[in-house]
Batch of 4 targets.
Target 1
Amino acid sequence: MALERFDHHSSMEELREDYSKIQGVYASAIREVNARLQTLNDEFSFRHRHNPIHHIESRVKSLNSIIKKLRAMEAPVSIINAKKLLNDIAGVRVVCRYVDDIYRIANLLLSQDDVLLILEKDYIKNPKPNGYRSLHIVVDVPVYRIEGKLYIPVEIQIRTVAMDFWATLEHGIRYKATEEVPEHIGRELKECADVIFETDDRMQAVFKALQQVHDRVDDDWPIEPPDEMSQYGG
């Protein structure tokens, strides 16, 4: 790709051509992150009988979305500028079962020596004013191409099922609104977010209590079968 001045506005034809060149690279970065997350989830499940990840979603930001975001930043629209200014061209959303799982998955991923943390925003400990909660991290991950190894930024949003439920519905309400959402609706959405977070906390407490019960049952289960069961076990 030819080098462009940082302040250069690209034509639509140039944008489409340049976007097609980078789309595959960012898709490769997403596949790399997804594979690592799935491996961590599988290994944790094997060791602790618990899958911290409920599901994973991902996307490469569309060209229209890139243009819209650059214009909102009042930056000249070009793919060169997008690569310099946008950390979320490649995006992965990890939906976990419990709040503890969010930090567990983030820490396990960041402990890998070739995953480099670029940015972290903790909207769980510090929610947005509208009630939004999620952990956002931007990481550089290695992508191996014919020309060699590249490090590509990927934004990873990690949240619980309950947080994802609220965020999805809240986004839909605001997106479909023909004008600014009234203040009393905003307060109602914030209150719903707080209730959902409290429910998250209670569900996690229930899960931990059940884990302790299962651990006690496992400790009480005999390693060797009693004599009366020997006819079944040899």
Note: The domain at 12-161 is CATH 3.30.460.10 (Beta Polymerase; domain 2).
Target 2
Amino acid sequence: MPRRFLAQLNPLHKTILACVFLIPLFAAPQCAANDWEHQETHSDARDFSAAGFVHVRLSVGDMHIRRGDSNKISLRYTIKSRRESSLKEARVDFDVHGNDATIEFHAPSSANTQFDVELEVPEKTNLYVHDKIGDMTVEDVEGDKDLTLGIGDIRVDKAREGYRLVNASAGIGDVNGDGYGETSGWLGKSLKYRGEGKYELRAHVGIGDIKLGGK
């Protein structure tokens, strides 16, 4: 009976059914956010070249990236965990080679552990950020952006005049871009914009919303 029932569902119904079961599983670490028993805050800074490329990978946690006032990458992050042993096992790989930087956050998969990240980059920086669960904010950074998020919200504040191409989409959720044109879609929304600038913005969230700001 269950197999026959699933076979009769159309793709949209299957998507909705999958989300009903999967969202509680993915949201579990976030629900425990107020129960963190162990926390540690660290900071690091590296010299960097303007107009360079910064690649960031994060599994669970919030990411806030903003423009700094120097040619440095300044990183400040807080590790939160319900187990002290997991707190000690978590680590960050921060590597800079010329105009290319990679920041990867690693947490044990056996316990609820997350990173809250604040990152300052030079005014002109190309960003490639991939997060699985959390919220992502990028403020006033010039450059190409490739932002991917599994579950959560993405917010980008940067004048749209700086972009020649914007492609934003939500698998399940909304896309809001004042002045960027109309969105399309029903269960998931998408937005495409072409302007006179020189940068590209590509943003995608699996489940969540995207907000594009700037005038």
Note: The CA atoms of residues 60 and 133 lie 5 Å apart.
Target 3
Amino acid sequence: MDNSVQERNVSFFRFEDLRIYGKATDYSAWVVKNLSTPNNEMERNLVNSFCHSSYDIALNIAEGSSRNKSQFEHYLKISKTAIRECIVFTAVAYSVGLFDEERCNQSREFLMELTRMIGALIISLQRGGRRREESDMDADTTVDDPDDALDAIDTNF
């Protein structure tokens, strides 16, 4: 058995190492690729708003990751708000014919998975915070700090 230590490639921007960030950007790309071409101004507004909300999921994950834990949780909750917006846009896109039934279901499944992943990350951050309080560590350390608990939590979210 090879006992060599595998080097882990860590991104300069640590949020890029979060699986949830990758899944969120995948969803944004999926939305852009799968929406039918709008036929009128109202449909164009729907497409623009839908795309904007899908981008907000990843944008808030990225922004929050540079903050302290409680602020990161706050930004993750804002990401969940963007997910709920995308659920509404999915339903409307289906109603006006910009999504067929299959794409509507795919979008909903993507969004349910993102919701579960963000919820799990929030719980992980909260548990880490309780452990920190018990060990009397500084609760205002930013997530980008190498000594912060982001190193200790599973980044497979």
Note: The two ends are 30 Å apart (CA to CA).
Target 4
Amino acid sequence: MKKNVYDKIKDEEEKIKKENKVKKNHDIKAMFSQRILAFLIDLVLISVITSFITVFVPVNDTATKLYEEQNKVLEGYVEGTVSMEEYVNQMVDLSYDISKQTVIVSIVTIVISLLYYVVYPCYNNGQTLGKKLMKIKIKKIDESDLSMNDLLIRGMVNNSILVNIVNVIFVLFLSKNIFLSASSLVSVIQYLVLIISLIMIAFTRNARGLHDLAAKTEVVQADTVKEDVLCTSGN
């Protein structure tokens, strides 16, 4: 009988546990369950923080009207006065116009992500709040000091920072049709990267995702490694 995905992940975690028993402290890898929970905690936290802060970012009257129009289209679709095709077309157009009018909000969101996923863990022993709660941390595979550049590379790949930056550039310089196509393509690539990274973390021996490979990092148990006072500003 073939094992399901859950059973395979549990088997990989059991292998890691057995390996950890015979390894040095600094080699103890984080479990897949710890990493996925930390990721989800961080995702919720960053969403709450971003929503709270962006409330205070001024939005012009045009953007406000677009939001109201978007709500009307949604209400029309729910009530049945707007067809599926009309709903999709109007929502796509409105989404582009809203993106155009809320570039400042997008930039603030990017800054918050950089502070949370890059600056904060750089000065907090390689940990975001989610990783801290799960008692895991980011470290270099060659035991060198973790740098802000390393965390920036990881954040660009794993936390949609690069996608958000690219979308801001797209909405500023591309026409509506090209923007929608390019933005959709970038989003699909981001989802593929996340899926591939999850598979690599769950099923490969070294438990490193694409973001770890790019930054030459790994995620380990935080209470088994020596804590660094500060990370470095360069590689």
Note: Residues 5-59+102-222 form one domain.
